Amino acid sequence: RIVIPKEAENGIEIHNLAQSINQALDRIEYGYKQQQQFISNASHELRTPLTVISGYINLLDRWGKEDPKVLDESIQAIQSETEYMRQLIERLLFFARSTTGTLEAHFMVIDASELLEEVYNGVLLIAEEREILLGRNDKASIYAEPGSVKQMLRIFIDNAIKYTPSGGYIYLSCEADEKQVCFKVQDTGIGIPKKDLERVFERFYRVDSSRTKETGGSGLGLSIAKYIAKGNNARLELTSELHKGTTVTAIFPRHYETKKDTDK
Ligand code: ADP
């Protein structure tokens, strides 16, 4: 803390300087606390699958050699926990690596409908017993970083799959008007309670850890999506009705091609 010396109290400039230094210190302290919180959450998240894996290794060691059922079950569990850990580490690294402004360096004009179609083709196989349908897909352009926009849509779709019981539907669409282009991922899943709607974008926040436990969520997906949206000048909207379904919309400013773009 910077304390203004008694004799300088009337010196307005020193006062202002001290105030700005204090504000900067507050920001640093806040950032540091956030980082500590992140590290402790991340370690906690990584410890959970590790405990499961070592549990199954013990089981294998004791019974797995004689009992093929235990052997199969343990191998399967270890494989799925390892995969979960791999995804979690990837997501954690995304935060660790990303600094603001990195996305902007790779901005380009993107055909929104082509991008959505690519994403749609990429997820058809992972839907299992839920149906993924491509609805309205308007032709329009956005100016953004394509890899991250795809990653963001994948996060929405992965969630839609995770939180929609088999037999449900997932609708993808892209609607454009004069000003904006909206990507929508809509599902007929379990929905999100009203009280949690705001909080689901926080890092590591899950609506109900017990219900997300089976689905293997980390609580990081939507916070990454929010970060990506911001980096691409888009904003997110989330509407949901419990037991009916959820709609996530990413709204981008519409980009109009100029002569300079087409010359590129
Ligand atoms: P997770 O890895 O747990 O899915 P997210 O950050 O992606 O983490 O989402 C946070 C929480 O929001 C989830 O745990 C889940 O409870 C809720 N959620 C997100 N998307 C949906 C959806 N499409 N339907 C129902 N709940 C959802």
Automatic annotation (TrEMBL):
Citing just one GO molecular function, the answer is: phosphorelay sensor kinase activity
Q: Which reaction does it catalyse?
A: ATP + protein L-histidine = ADP + protein N-phospho-L-histidine
Q: Which residues form the Histidine kinase domain?
A: 41-256
What general EC class does the enzyme of this chain belong to? transferase
* Domain of life, per lineage: Bacteria
Grouped into one coarse class, the protein's main location is: membrane
Keywords, alphabetical? Kinase, Membrane, Phosphoprotein, Transferase, Transmembrane, Transmembrane helix, Two-component regulatory system
Specify whether S-adenosyl-L-methionine is a keyword of the entry: no
GO (cellular component) term, any one: plasma membrane
EC numbers listed for it are 2.7.13.3
Q: Where in the cell is it found?
A: Membrane
Coiled-coil annotated spans: none
Q: What is this protein called?
A: histidine kinase
Q: Which organism is it from?
A: Megasphaera hexanoica
User: Which start and end residues of the full protein are shown?
Assistant: 222 to 485 of 485
